[in-house]
Design a protein that fits this description.
Elements (H helix, E strand, L loop, with lengths): L4 E9 L2 E6 L2 H10 L6 H9 L3 E5 L6 H5 L5 H12 L2
Parallel strand pairs: 1-3
Antiparallel strand pairs: 1-2
Length: 86
Amino acid sequence: MTSSHLTVFARSVYGTVSFYPINDAAKALAQIAGTKTLTPSVIQLARGLGMSVECLPDPVLSDEECLNDPLLSLAVGARKALNSSK
């Protein structure tokens, strides 16, 4: 892993927020974890190792669409919380 910066996007699936890897470092971490997505606990462990995390908006769903759905709005809240705790 050549970068200690993870880039992900959050999506709520059936009320569970998952972080989808975007850059190579995030994809490698998901591969190490044996998953396609990163859980909030894996994100926190990565931060504990000194990695920075940037959570981008969902590339498919707009924030407006997500905020109109109670389950999807969880992803918007998770993204904002993750980015504010840098």
